[in-house]
Design goal:
Chain lengths: 563, 81
């Protein structure tokens, strides 16, 4: 059965005189050659043949008289091309688009909007081939300057509350219950000096997470990943690796688990080996303590340099691994969604700050508390020891300290602090607090009432808020609210550190803390994901790199006369 | 429309991006993109990446981030190119 469809009642687009004449000519040829078009409308088939539609040509070829019809259509198409200068399919498409455009213009009125959106304009700069990386590093620099400068007054205030008022209340309470001397020492020298020494940094972390949340929620973080993706491919890394690396700025443990998103095992292993080189937030307390003690107003720059150094060393290590034990396999593409820029939601930023800081505080109440108790025990064994240097901890630390002597920090206190830092990096500070501030309890304490203490805390918070506000405003060009000479206050720990370190040896130590063996939790994550051998590799190579880089910095500095 | 589009690009030495073309032609980018694809397919236009490299020679252009962010540029194919 043959179905004939007439096109008489259907809409017909006028393709113009010359084209229409060729269409009519071909339809006439269909009838003259008694060519049965079957289920295809004659006009439609004529147009398709003139357009040289490959599918239709193949079908017509097999139909009776098909070859003759195709030859006629070919001649017609050639004729049109010679007259109109284009293939027929382009001519017909042009007519169709023109017709559609005409209908749209008559029936639809769109408001005139600028199609270059705000996101387009910003992305033109932040994802630019050459400007992208400098913009990224400038943003990170500003963030770390803000974190250090704005949080400094709050750090002083928290230090005063924990090691001042709170420690005094505990002493008073322990005296009240006639606690034995060892209990007093355990609480004041062990728990408050250790855990308190870490909790002091909570305001700094809150401010760090606040700015990181702003960057993430605004949409800039994914641009940073995009910019770094291109940079990382240059040094033989996978583009997806930057996502775990960004997480690594917070904590290396989730970052190691985040490598699961990478398809290739080789890329996963390589990323996990490099993630601990991204400076995690646990290292920040060490940077802040040494930064403020030795570099004053340049502390922000020093800390930013450490973060940048971590990235650079990771890149170099990636290049070395790629050319040695982790040669690249087949590369897969990195697909990244770049959301439009948005104003960060205040609630979301608060949640981000709270969740990350809560984890830090939780660790202070568990791991750091446990290590602080162990530290206190080891610093007081054998029982009755009077000099910390003679304690078990002191003896062990003294035995390993010569390893660090060429790096400028060969004293037993630092050696011991670095060993305990293996448990968690912030413990380096808590151990130093315990060692250097351990004798503080013996010092006479100014007697104050509870009311005076609470008033002092409130007054201190008010002053810290005002100081931070002034510092924040001083960042604006032309605003001078802070006297550079008076903005920093020396803490007891700062003074103790200055007796044992120079600026050069402090810099070498900061680099060592940045690069040396990842904490035990990170190594556990690497072992869990990739096995013991990669965890051991990570520990050994990072410690070796840390020692070499610190050695170069310290000895190079001495040669240049910086020591 | 296609002729108008080719004429527009004729005068642009460094070509134009999709958003620039759609802005000049006062048409939706999705509508213009179909026309551009057809003209590229017919060899009338050449598409280049934002870094000036020819996208047609790249096998992973559908997954290219640079392209996703900054878009292709289109130029008229000269007879001798």
């Amino acid at each position: 059965m043959t179905t004939t469809i007439t096109t008489r009642n259907f809409f017909r687009l006028d393709y113009g005189g010359k084209l229409e004449r060729q269409i009519t000519k071909l339809i006439t040829a269909f009838e003259k050659l008694q060519f049965d078009t079957g289920r295809y409308p004659q006009r439609w088939l004529a147009i398709k043949l003139l357009e040289a539609d490959a599918d239709i040509l193949a079908r017509v070829q097999n139909m009776p008289n098909g070859t003759q019809i195709i030859a006629l259509a070919g001649q017609g198409a050639e004729h049109l091309k010679s007259m109109l200068g284009d293939d027929v399919d382009l001519l017909t498409a042009d007519r169709r688009y023109g017709y559609i455009n005409g209908i749209v213009r008559q029936s639809l009125h769109r408001p005139l909007i600028d199609r270059i959106t705000f996101t387009d304009r910003v992305d033109d700069i932040v994802t630019h081939k050459w400007l992208g990386l400098p913009v990224f590093f400038t943003v990170m620099y500003i963030v770390f300057r803000l974190v250090i400068d704005v949080s400094a007054p709050f750090l002083d205030w928290t230090d005063a509350v924990i090691n001042g008022s709170f420690a005094n209340w505990m002493r008073f309470f322990l005296d009240l219950v006639s606690a034995p001397a060892w209990t007093r020492s355990l609480v004041i020298d062990g728990i408050i000096a250790g855990v308190g020494g870490i909790l002091v940094f909570v305001p700094g972390l809150l401010i760090l997470y606040f700015f990181l949340a702003l960057l993430e929620d605004s949409g800039y973080m994914s641009r940073a990943a995009f910019v770094m993706d291109r940079f990382m491919r240059v040094v033989g890394l996978h583009g997806k690796s930057f996502i775990p690396m960004i997480l690594g700025f917070g904590c290396a443990v989730p970052a190691v688990y985040a490598t699961r998103t990478i398809a290739s095992r080789r890329d996963r292993v390589l990323t996990a080996l490099l993630v601990p080189l991204m400076s995690c937030s646990a290292r920040l307390p060490v940077y802040v303590v040494f930064g403020l003690a030795f570099f004053g107003s340049r502390a922000g720059t020093v800390i930013w340099t450490l973060y940048a150094l971590g990235i650079v060393v990771a890149m170099l290590a990636g290049m070395v691994f790629t050319r040695t034990i982790l040669k690249p396999d087949v590369s897969s593409a990195f697909v990244l969604e770049l959301p439009p820029y948005r104003r960060p939601a205040f609630k979301s930023v608060l949640i981000h700050m709270w969740e990350n800081t809560r984890e830090f505080v939780r660790k202070a109440g568990t791991t750091i508390l446990l290590v602080s108790l162990m530290m206190w025990l080891l610093l007081n064994l054998p029982w009755g020891v009077t000099r910390q240097r003679d304690s078990y901890f002191g003896q062990f630390s003294a035995a390993i300290s010569p390893v660090f002597a060429p790096l400028g920090f060969g004293n037993w206190e630092t050696g011991g602090a670095l060993v305990t830092g293996f448990m968690a990096k912030e413990i380096v500070v808590s151990t130093m607090s315990q060692i250097y501030l351990g004798d503080e309890a013996a010092e006479p304490i100014a007697t104050t009432t509870l009311g005076e203490d609470l008033l002092g805390i409130g007054q201190g918070l008010k002053e810290a808020t005002l100081s931070s506000g002034k510092i924040l405003l001083s960042i604006l060009p032309g605003v001078e609210l802070v006297n550079e000479a008076t903005e920093q206050e020396d803490t007891v720990l700062s003074l103790a550190l200055r007796e044992r370190f120079t600026s050069l040896s402090a810099a070498a130590l900061l680099v060592f803390v940045l690069l040396y063996v990842p904490c035990v939790a990170t190594l556990g994550a690497i072992k869990h994901e990739f096995g013991t051998s990669w965890a051991v590799t990570s520990a050994i190579y990072q410690t070796a790199v840390a020692w070499i880089v610190s050695f170069i910095i310290y000895q190079g500095g001495l040669l240049l006369g910086l020591g | 429309m296609l002729t108008q589009l080719v004429n527009l690009l004729e005068n642009k030495e460094n070509g134009l991006s999709l958003s620039e073309i759609s802005r000049v032609m006062k048409a939706q980018p999705s509508a213009v993109l179909c026309m551009l694809d057809l003209l590229v397919q017919k060899g009338k236009l050449l598409e280049f990446g934002p870094d000036g490299k020819c996208c047609t020679s790249c096998g992973v252009q559908s997954e290219c981030n640079l392209l996703a962010v900054r878009g292709k540029r289109y130029i008229v194919r000269r007879i001798n190119s």
